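Progress note, project year one: complex with zinc ion.
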Amino acid sequence: MNAAAVSSLGAKAALVRKIGGPFTIESVQVAAPREHEVRVCLVGVGMCHTDLVMRDGFPIPMPVVLGHEGAGVVESIGAGVTSVAVGDHVVLSFNSCAACPNCAETQPAYCYNFMAHNFAGVRPADGTTAVSQDGALIHANFFGQSSFSTYAISHERNTVKVDKDLPLEILGPLGCGIQTGAGAVINSLGLKKGESLAIFGGGAVGLSALLGARAVDAGTVIVVEPNASRGALALSLGATHVINPKETADVLAKIKELSGGGVRHAIDTTGIPAVVAIAVETMLPNGMLGLIAVPPPDAMLPANMLSMLIRGAGVKYITEGDADPQTFIPQMLAYYKAGKFPFDRLIKKFPFDQINEAAHASETGEAIKPVMVF
Ligand SMILES: [Zn+2]
Ligand SMILES: [Zn+2]
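Model obtained:
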């Protein structure tokens, strides 16, 4: 298709008009893709915790179209797009600037301009968006996609082509939540075959970390999770042990007992300082604690410096699993095809028009990873 022949399209999008929501499905217009942009017909989109954080008041201009785990089919492409073509199946991920030193070193998760390209609600270059309603601007470009919509504009950089024999409607969460957990283990911690890991929190990101650990044939993997059904799911996905902190008085001692003295590395997905205080003490010498969750705004790291010194312990905040989506999403899909990465077991499907029910199911823990299908 000739990009110049493409015009704007009518779409149905879930808007957030005020802090706290709800999502309201409304008719909007999605403009033609500009240079290096891609217009995607969405097939499925995941609900990530960050969508709910934005809905509930993290600063973003409203009304806004959220959604940042989209998967769909390329409907049209803007000038200069070469990596995808009309009809390709694609997964959308976070966006980055392409110009800063970290983007140049294929570390787009640490793009110097990450906030502007993912959270500004507009195109950072000129303050416009591709979405409008009766001529009025609707904020979009959330994570460079705003995919709570039947059509969305993404960018060549955050649009990843995938094979057509994969179940497209459930692939979107690979672009954020699943990549975040699995990438933290595989990329950031570099967990190796036979090595041990403790995971604090068995939600979508923690269980994705577990999937990553199993994909690289980790040894002992201990999941600390108070919700019994999530603990049971963790065991069925390959955790060697689950600790329920409501039933275990000394979680640190239990981890040391189960692992024979401590774990190689640890992951915190809770953001709770009292949990991090335990997590940082679980690692063997030269271990690393990866921190993934959004902490309370005033939280300080609760770590004993002498204990860390003695062990040479590291602590690292990890964004998007240190992933370059163009290579890591295909890597996760290769594990999936090999039967080593059953991420589909985390997913519960909802029709797109039940997006508020999906959000509620995520908040109550009834659904680990909701995916809205179109
Ligand atoms: Zn950058
Ligand atoms: Zn996310």
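The chain is about 25% helix and 25% strand.
The CA atoms of residues 40 and 74 lie 5 Å apart.
No further modelling is planned for this target in the current period.
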